Every structure is written in C-alpha cells, then in structure tokens.
Amino acid sequence: MSRMTVNASNSGTTGLTGRIRDCTPQGKGLGKLSAGDIAVVDSPDMTRREAELLASAKPAAVVNLASFSTGSIPNYGPHVLLDAGVPLVEGAGAEARSVLRSGKKGTIEADGTISVGKKRIGTGAFVDRAAVDANFAAAQRSLVDNMEAYFGNTIQFIHSESPLLIDGVGVPELGESMAGQKVLVVSPLTGESGELRTRIENLRNFIREYAPVIIGVGAAADTLVDLGYNPDFIVGDPVDISAESLRGHARVILPADPDGHAVGLERIQDLGVGAMTFPAATNSSTDLAILLATFHNAEMIVTIGDPVDLDTIFANPADASPAALLTRLKAGGRLVDSTAIENLYRTTSGSGVAWAWAILGILVALATVILIVGLGGPGEFTDNLVDTWNQIALRVQGWFS
C-alpha cells in the first residue's frame, strides 16, 4: 500500500486551526460538528456515506486516527472529502483519542503535528489525491484477485461437502432436541474480552422468555457457565474448554476431519466424558454449530459471534471462509444475529416510561384513598364516598364565599 502523504509545500497547508470535535463512535460529536471545526474520526477505510456527512458540515479538516484507505478495499470516502476541499490527515494513532477534548481549540501544523491548546496529542500525515487514486486502483485489483480465489475455494468446498450441505450427511444424530425450538449459538468474539459477556447479558430477557437451546462454541462455553447459563450442547476443541464445562450436563460434539479423526479426543477420554464427532472440511466450530441447528429443524438460530457479511468477505476473506458463507446461506431466513434480538428487547428509559410510572403512582394513590374513605365511615361503602365528597365540596365552596 502506498503511503498517502504530501509535503506541506504541495498541500498549500501552512497550519490549520479550529475547535476539535470528537466524531469517533465513542465521542458522538458528529451532530455538533460545525463549519471551521476539526473533526477527529477513527475510520479505517472510510465509507462514502460517512464522508458525505462530514463534508456537509464543512469542517476545516478531518483527522483520522486510522488510515482513510488501508488498501484492502476500494473505498470512496477520501475522494468525497478531497473533492469538497477538506484537508485530510491520517494515522494520528489511537493513543491520541485518550487526550482529545471536544470543543477545545486545536491546531494542525504543516508537518502533521496535531495540538490541542499547547499540548501536542499526535502526528499524522496529510493525504494526497494522487496517492488516494493510486491506492484505490491497487485495492480494486486486489479485490478482484481475492474474490476470484475466494469463489474458487467456494466451488471446491461445494464439490467436497455437497452431501453435508444438501442432505446433512455426517451431522450427529441428536433426536428432536432442537426441532421447532429457538437455538442460541454463542461463539468467542475477536476483540475486547468483556464484550462477549455483555452480549450474552443483553439477551437475558430473550433467554428467560423463550428458554432457547443453547450451544456453546469453544471457550464461549466457559463464559456461559460463568454467567450461570448451562449450555445444552458444546461444540469445539476440548483443549479450549474447561473441565468443569465439559463435565456439565451439556452434550459434547467434537469437530473432526473428513476421515473422522478428532484432535481433542484424548482430553475427552482422560476426563471420562462422552462425546460425538462431527466430520467436515471446515475448522470452524461455529459453522458446525449452525449446521447442527439447521439440520435438526430449529425454528430460529440466534448467533453471538464475529459477523460474516459481504464487507467482511471483501476486507478480509480469511475471517469469512467459503464454509462460513455457505453455512449461513444454508441456514437462510432462520439465522438471526444477536444484535437484532438485543434491539427488540432494549428498554428505553425516556420520558414516556417516566410518565407511565407517574400516572400509575397517581392511580394507585387514588385507589388507596377511595378504599380508606369507603371503608372508614359508619355507613355503607358508597354512602361513605358520597358523604366525604359532599363535605369536600362544601368546604371548597366556603373558601370562595
């Protein structure tokens, strides 16, 4: 990838000033971005849509903590901003984000040095249009080459695994345990260690309401157990899973080579745990878990795990193998990402909810008063209410007479 730098003498930039606006996902400053501000983003391979939103605010400059184009995909974001006359600085570094102060006056020197007030927070490189164009062209060629290889491997996988994909040949027999049921497949996540726990906890209402069949994939089975959830099935190499989880009530399924050899069989035997094997030409336990649910007629398959979508395939085909793509196509409309379920169960603590609680409190108070008054007098319930009302009316009338 060519480095998209430019000399200050060619950029026409002798120093830029403006109020810093933290427009990273954490900063949420895009809505406050005004003309003349310096927008700070964290957007590797910036999309056209994000660039259009930034350009519409007419900022003095856009500083990217990452690279506007990494070279993995041909993206139009930097073109949009440069066409709008917005100077771009990239590679400021993630560490700069910790010292950002939205609303403070910032300066970008001709050499790319970025300061807030008198404090230097990082150094980036100005982006050159010629380098952007060259990077885009190289990324286009790379994308075509990668996709030709990717779909060649996809055809090869179909050739070797069509019996599995069409008729489920090799899928372990599990009876009717998933038929017509909702199934939750929980896989390890790449990134922050606490994110998986958060994603699982965000589904607690879904789990409580529907009691789905839970499949723990690899080390995610331990996370489930730590949170008090007992997986019904565990799929993965037992080396990655604690003895406590393997000895629980979950049925253990080992990924195996097409010839039936399973790497973790020794550990299972040492622990005295029964297990089934699932032979397939994929080393992804998540793919196997989804196929298990699919061929055992699950009504819905909710997945927690790294996404497999077109953007992932374009940017890094290694993270979205042909087996992953075909597995998800086989599951079809039954497959739902957990974030969609989280959004359905998310409760908004806005004014509407507060008013509802206030009205409920008033109604409860009124009901309590009515009961006390109705039952507290010498007469019948209705007579007591009428007498009390008449007394209140007479007293109010006396105030105004």
TrEMBL record:
Stored Pfam families: SteA-like_C
Region Disordered, residue ranges: 1-23
Polar residues: bias regions: 1-16
Gene Ontology BP, a term: thiamine diphosphate biosynthetic process
Domain of life: Bacteria
GO MF annotations in UniProt: ATP binding; kinase activity; thiamine diphosphokinase activity
Keyword Cell membrane set for record: no
InterPro entries assigned to the protein according to its UniProt record, in alphabetical order: Put_SteA-like, SteA-like_C, TPK_catalytic_sf
Record keyword ATP-binding present: yes
UniProt KW keywords: ATP-binding, Kinase, Membrane, Nucleotide-binding, Transferase, Transmembrane, Transmembrane helix
SteA-like C-terminal domain boundaries: 340-393
Stretches that traverse the bilayer: 354-375
Protein name: Thiamin pyrophosphokinase, catalytic domain protein
